[in-house]
Write a structure and sequence with these properties.
With 245 residues, this protein is of the alpha/beta class. The protein contains 8 helices and 11 strands. Strands 4-3-5-9-11 form a 5-stranded parallel sheet, sandwiched between helices. Strands 6, 7, 8 and 10 form a 4-stranded mixed sheet that branches. Strands 1-2 form a two-stranded parallel sheet. The longest helix has 17 residues.
């Protein structure tokens, strides 16, 4: 699925090919599960997945939609394994995001890029969320130092990093671009508890790649949301705004 998306290189997705590939994933997932396990997945109120397999995009035999459309799924990073064990041996702190939620949007795409302009225009919709308790601030970050300053100087409960993503299969790593530099395992300092990576394929799962999304946990993030394949900036922005709302 990841290879197919990359081969399109910005072209309109082919629905028939996509559905055929998803059907293969459905068959692979169903073939690994017993009838009791399928029933457990269908009945679960939430799923914690210790696997590199993107089980959320699979439709089980008893379902009519992918699992991720019916139940919240939390994937636990398995690489490196030592960090995965450390992650499971500690209880994350409880964060109450109730009365007032502070959101920092770090725009890492320049305004000269049409994607950057589309992304910025989408945040205008959030201006009406102030009465609902959403305090949103958008900061332009033309480089890694600017991104570090924005994170360090702006108190936030949720960090949204809007950027272009990169996935290099030659080195089996995936990250995002800030300014003109690639970001993978750079240190940012303490991160807010929730991080949205609004960028393409920052969390591929097919080859066990080293991914920036997994590495953010070691810097204080409790929950990280990222994409497994390339995505349209308008869809990503709409999804992020709806999640905040």
């Amino acid at each position: 699925l990841e290879l197919m998306w990359q081969s399109w290189q910005g072209q309109a997705p082919n629905a028939r090919k996509l559905n055929r590939r998803l059907a293969r994933i459905d068959a692979a997932a169903s073939g690994c599960l017993t009838e009791g396990e399928v029933f457990a997945l269908a009945s679960a109120s939430s799923i914690t997945a210790f696997t590199e397999f993107p089980i959320g995009i699979a439709t089980t035999p008893w379902g009519s939609a992918p699992l991720t459309c019916r139940v919240p799924i939390a994937y636990r990073p398995l690489t490196p394994l030592t960090r995965a064990l450390q992650f499971e041996c500690q209880t994350p702190p409880i964060r109450y995001l109730g009365n007032r939620v502070r959101v920092l949007v770090a725009e890492c795409i320049p305004t000269s890029d049409v994607v950057g302009r589309l992304s910025r225009s989408s945040w205008a919709v959030t201006q009406g969320l102030g009465d609902a308790g959403i305090e949103l601030r958008v900061v332009d970050c033309d480089g890694l130092d600017a991104l570090r300053r924005a994170i360090g100087e702006t108190p936030a409960d949720i960090l949204v990093i809007s950027a272009h993503g990169w996935f290099d299969r030659a080195v089996n790593a995936a990250g995002f671009i800030c300014g003109t530099g690639r970001v993978l395992d750079q240190e940012f300092g303490p991160l807010p508890p929730v991080v949205f990576l609004s960028a393409c394929h920052v969390w591929p799962r097919g080859t066990g790649a080293v991914r920036v999304a997994s590495l953010l946990f070691r810097q204080g993030a409790v929950a990280v949301i990222g994409t497994t394949v390339p995505a349209d900036v308008r869809n990503k922005s709409l999804l992020t705004v709806r999640l905040l709302a």
